[in-house]
Design a protein that fits this description.
By secondary structure, the chain is α+β, with helices and mostly antiparallel strands. It is 40% helix and 19% strand. It is an enzyme of class 6 (ligase).
């Protein structure tokens, strides 16, 4: 038995010494120490060894196993060290090369302008509300005092999904839904995306964004509207900004007005930016029409209010002196990284 174990040991050590790869070492381990290995077969034959010789044979088997395992581990460590050295030689790193720069995103000009407008009105006590972009014709037109034969309802101006459903042309439907809830008083702004059948050019797009505001309370007058928008203009464009109201017509407000602000480029003196007039148009506004209040379940004899609407892209174009609206949608990093 001792001679047989010596033979197994010598054979195993020779095969380990001849191995030149880690997978071959594993093959040797399986051949001698595996479940069907040569040394395991000797252990299985212990039942045929006389009882008085079993301790000695068992000791010889353990010594043989230890010798084989020790040489296997030593050979494996040497091979791994050599492999690591070869890898380091192949994978040379030039530490003098510049590192890769992480491309970190930031807010879009529209988002920056929206957050600024929201900050101003939230500071005045307004709440920011939102509503669906696919809207019922009733909320987009009828409830805003726009009758069935109004030109704004022409299919050339509005995207109709069905005869009763449209892509909203303004965020005013959000105001109607807020009024219908009956929780008075109301002070809200409603930002969101809107859709109109416009050709794409430097100042128009079939999809753009609006911010509309609504105040409903007792004893609200046009003076409250003027004071609110004057403060808004001063905070957005600078403390020296003045506002001018020009009479206009909107179906859902009466009286209505267009609002101009003094050119923040020239201070109202007249320049290329304001086309020499000293004024820049920014939004439309007016007192909420009594019919709109009635249709929303509010008594116009007890409550009054005002509403206003401004294009978010227009604010961004003016604030950052951008002369083409299309730049906001082209996702050109060279343009967006300026903000």
């Amino acid at each position: 038995m001792k001679e047989k174990l010596d033979q197994i040991r010598q054979e195993a050590l020779k095969q380990i010494a001849d191995s030149d790869a880690l997978d071959k070492l594993n093959d040797v381990r399986v051949a001698f120490l595996g479940k069907k290995g040569k040394l395991t077969a000797v252990l299985k034959g212990m039942k045929d060894v006389p009882a008085e010789e079993r301790p000695l044979v068992g000791q010889l088997v353990n010594e043989t196993r230890a010798a084989i395992e020790g040489f296997l581990e030593e050979s494996r460590a040497k091979m791994e060290k050599l492999a690591r050295e070869e890898q380091l030689k192949r994978e040379v790193i030039d530490v003098t090369l510049p590192a890769k720069k992480n491309s970190v995103g930031h807010r879009h000009p529209n988002t920056i302008a929206l957050e600024e407008v929201e900050r101003i009105f939230v500071g005045m006590g307004y709440e920011v509300v939102e509503g669906p972009e696919v809207e019922y014709d009733y909320y987009n037109f009828e409830a805003l005092n726009i009758p069935a034969n109004h030109p704004a309802k022409d299919e050339q101006d509005t995207f109709y999904v069905t005869s009763d459903i449209v892509l909203r042309t303004q965020t005013s439907p959000v105001q109607v839904r807020t009024m219908e809830k009956g929780k008075l008083p109301i002070r809200v702004i409603a930002p969101g995306r809107v859709f109109r059948s416009d050709e794409v050019d430097a100042t128009h797009s079939p999809s753009f964004h609006q911010i509309e505001g609504l105040v409903i309370d007792k004893n609200i007058t046009f003076a409250d509207l003027k004071g609110t928008l004057a403060e808004f203009a001063r905070q957005l464009f600078g403390p020296e900004t003045k506002v001018k109201f020009r009479p206009h017509h909107f179906p859902f407000t009466e009286p209505s007005a267009e609002v101009d602000v003094t050119c923040f480029k020239c201070g109202g003196k007249g320049c290329r930016f304001c086309k020499g007039s000293g004024w820049i148009e920014i939004l439309g506004c007016g007192m909420v029409h009594p019919n709109v209040l009635k249709m929303s379940g509010i008594d116009p004899e007890e409550y009054s209010g005002f509403a206003f609407g401004v294009g978010l892209e227009r604010i961004a174009l003016l604030k950052y002196e951008i002369d083409d609206m299309r730049l906001l949608y082209e996702n050109d990093d060279r343009f967006l990284k300026q903000f």
